[in-house]
Amino acid sequence: MVDATALRAAFARRLSAMYGTEVPAYNTLVDVAQEVNREVLARMGADAERLGSIGRVTAERHGAIRVGTPAELAQVARIFGAMGMYPVGYYDLREAAGSSVPVVSTAFRPVDEAELAANPFRVFTSMLVTGDRRFFGADLERRLGEFLGARRLFPPRLLDLADRAEAEGGLDGEAAEEFLTLATRAFELSAEPVSRSWYAELERVSSVAADIGGVASTHVNHLTPRVLDIDALYARMSERGITMIDAIQGPPRWDGPDLLLRQTSFRALAEPRLFREDDGRVVQDDLRVRFGEVEARGIAVTPAGRALYDELSAELDALLAGQQVTAEERNAAGAKLWADRVPRGEAELIAGDLAYFTFHVLDARPGGAAPADLATLLADGWVGARPIVYEDFLPRSAAGIFQSNLTSDGAKDVTAAGADFGPEALAAVLGRPLHDPYELYASIRAASLARVRADLGLTREITLPPAR
Predict the structure, then answer these.
(1) Residue 341 located in a structural domain
(2) What domain range includes position 28?
């Protein structure tokens, strides 16, 4: 029996090999990331692995795919469910993006602490909201629905194997091989000609809409390795002559704890594709829709920590409004705001309930009766803390990556009413719970505190510091 963990790890490897064949610059990105990671490990030693072992970091990937309909998204959920990957979080890029990005998204990933440690493969998955009148008129929505309804992204055999794997906790060797082959093939770039006029009509609305609804299949939009020093990687990729987007998305580079997620990418490359003209001729041209993203993951923040991040981001926008600044100048301004408002140490993050950590009893702890409040347990040397890795995404950063790789801003009618498609609607489409990331992080923290309580023989619950 090949269990869900092994299926997930094998699928991540196969997808990486396939994508490297399709987008050779991705292989360069992986090589540079691993080069930087080795250097950071040599320089920092064990501290470099505080947010995950080097084995985990080296193997870690997140992918991104795009689908067009609720039915397609429900099928994606079945395929990833077979690999122990479940929908976590809700992202509305219609609101986060300044340009036309008519999608809502979730991320399929493991939710259990041990599964995340074994292989944290995650896939950011976006779905068109074709009923949103800011982007699609009634006639275009109808024709787009007909086009999407006529295509089949995933063969029935793949879906049958996925359902069996999820129900039985895995597949036997022969069935596992068939499942992995079919799943990888489903996300390959199709050689089928693209209708030039149909693609162009959708592209006038949104490059993202054209990439989803202008072709007969889906594909990996990007595949992302993890790096321990994203600023060093950004510089090194540029030195190799690879054009990067203008800035690193997410929190600024500063001298305090790494929080949340920082992302960047090389710009979408011109890839040869076949086009069918209205007169029936098939010609070769190119499209720029796929890019190479890389990420540096930090500490997961609590709702209070996220509120602080959002507040500082808004302050930075207001501070720089109307100014022409470089990416480095923006980072410097952001770092100054963070230095004034964000704690510079992990102990202070815990004390302000701004970030999530797990806790463990120390061998060299004091004698006598242990206290029942976390602050004293930490201060007096009873327990130690280890940060929980941020496993999720930031709508603003995802939109920033998307926008930086669009061929045009598209068209968005801000006077029209948007379609109401929130987390509840997304969960209904998926046919399974949409996990709240904060609840997942809190449950991992709570489980560690329960272990501490048992190890110390405490009769009372351990009290956490109050939120800021």
Answers:
(1) no
(2) 2-299+392-434
